[in-house]
Amino acid sequence: MVIGMVSSRKMAMVVPAGTEITRQGVSDAGKRGCVMVVKPVARAYILSGHMMSSWFVGDWLLRKKWPAIMAMFLALAFHAADYFGAFYTLREVPGVNNTPVAMYQPTLLSSTMSVASMVAFTLSLVCVLTRVHSQLLWMTLRTFDPWAIIACSARGWSARTFSRYWLQQSQSDAGWHSDAGWVHNYIAYGIDLVIILQFSGLLILVEAADIPKDVKRIFVAICLLYCVVISAVTLFWSEMPDWDTDAEVQILFFATMAPKSQFVSAYGTMAVLLTKAAVSTILQKNAFMYLRCHYEYCMDQLDTSFAKLATTDPSCIVYADFRLALQEIGISESHIFAGFNRLDVDHTGKVSLHNFRTCLMDIFAEHPDASHTVLLAKFCQEAFNHVSGYSSLDSMFGTVFSQWRRMKIEDFGECMYRSLVQDASLEKLFRRERMRTQSLLFAAFIQVALCWLEERDFRKVERDMISLGLRHRSYGIQPSYVCVFQIALLQTLCQNLNGLSLQAEISWSVVWSHFVVAPFLQGLVDLDGERPAVYRAVKDLLVETKKQPTCIQSLVHNLHHVVGGFWDWNKLFRDPEHERQHLAMLLGFLVAVADDLDAGEILKARQRIRGIANIHWDRGVVPRHMLAFQHAMSVTFREVVGPHVFTHAAESSWAVFMQTEVLEILLLAPFAETQDRVEAWACEIGCRSVDLKAFASLTDLACLDESMAEKGLQRLQAESGKYHEELTVNDVIKTFCDESMQHPSWTFEKVLENYCKMPPARDLYLSGSSELLE
Questions:
Q1: Is the pTM of this model over 0.70?
Q2: Residues 438 and 494: beta-carbon distance below 8 Å
């Protein structure tokens, strides 16, 4: 979209033929004029990218951002080196008043570098031209700055060419110049002119190109640096070759001055123009480089979205209308609530047009072609991310993988080893003389797990982690060690990254807990067979511990001394008494959860836990707090009821209960709408295996027909690797839990519909891997 401010009398001259003007009106920027919103014709590019894709490296150039930037950087570097005479030889010639003047004499290398600079500029231009929108370029050329840049570039080239011509004429008069030399000089003048036009043209095309904002910032920063260096060095280097201080020239309407002064003035003016462009693009998120208008004028699509939502009162949006409209497009309840709260800036229960446009402006600027549905879905997702720290699974993986790539494996392993051995329960497992080997094994375990997850074949990762857990049974690894390992992992990441943001901590916790710890524990402990005993043991253990008068006091002390835990527990509570009351309530709550699980009321227990998730996250509780609580509670059990009650079996039951029935449920609470519905379906069918009839009963809840159910079942079999085996209820629950994490803002119905329509996830990942690299 392009914005132009012009007088109404000249509007017909400015708007290209066939351009759609979607809105006109008086600007609200304190200036008279007309605001136009122009929607360019789709794919109205000057140079089609299909031409480049036929080249040997054309497709690669289209997918990457840095080749065009690197080519332009090299072109400017070569041109600057050429200007400062890095590849020339020097000769003294007489000036206007017969004063000796140094002059560059061309060499084969200097000519080669000039041609290389021109070729590099050409490559940058071709890359950028495939993104240049013709309508946007037209509107850009209607402003002053682009033409001023062209004029300054031409003025600088003319000044330098005149100076060199004058000095070469002096050489010729003295009999030092041959006809072949003149031909060479004219070719050099032509190449220099082409380079200057390429440089100025590139600066204008970047403004009109459909390229990322950071690329524009880099472009303008490099060009600004080039202009500043060229003009500053020329100004302060008094004996710079190729300039005769006594020569004078008048170019166009400029005052008579020396060519050197003309050159400095031209490049200085261009540096000022580029400074203004740099301020616009670097400091102001959504501003253009040269166009005088802001994206806030380009709000016609947002106005249309507002009108669709404001059905009860055309002047504002109320929550009931907002909720109904977003439910129809498949947005989940939690995301609708977060989105409306972010729109309701004044907390009045109503959203005005001004607030609606202000809140959605940034998303609209990043996705100007997004539909009404996509725009609102993205906004609600970002609003939910802002308040909860949760993003989609792809974003979480992106955070985890990018941060892990910044780690040095050996240093990370040693740091994690030192964190682990600070815990007395783990120190005895490791030998000090094998520290380096053990630390590398820790880092290698994390590396392998993350490499498996990068393949996005979650069922394969689950099978591999279960096998890994089975092998670790023989190593003496207890379920309680998993908690300490997670705390050490987060602590080590925090140390190596100079702190973890809320989003990064939640991303690591969700990915590690759900995809690594859960299946690892399933292999380490026979969860299906031992769950009833786990629930009963934990309930008895908590009830016995709560009876002891020193329980809460001991727990508070241990919480503040967990190795690798948080030292800011006091920030969560008003005072020590409030902390003790809250922890006593938490223990009572866990007793109720264990009782529900022991009675077989699994859905009730999980809904109870999810109900307090938002309360805890809003209070500033993060996953590491819960891990520290789990570990501190283990120490408290040992101190309060003694080792004869808190046996190894009881300790394992507590670890399994906290990891699988508390921590994972809390972490996945934002994705629970789909999981709740699937678990309710699992309770209703009352069987462990799933056939087409049972699966169709699930898809019936989303109003899908039998053919869709059959496709969904085939995909589930393909992803689970169970073509000839029976699918279990747990396979279905696990699959749709992961699917809801992929699309956290979607409703249950939309998640099921999308799953049944799409091919297996692994096929999608392999076929789309090249696109993801873009």
A1: no
A2: no
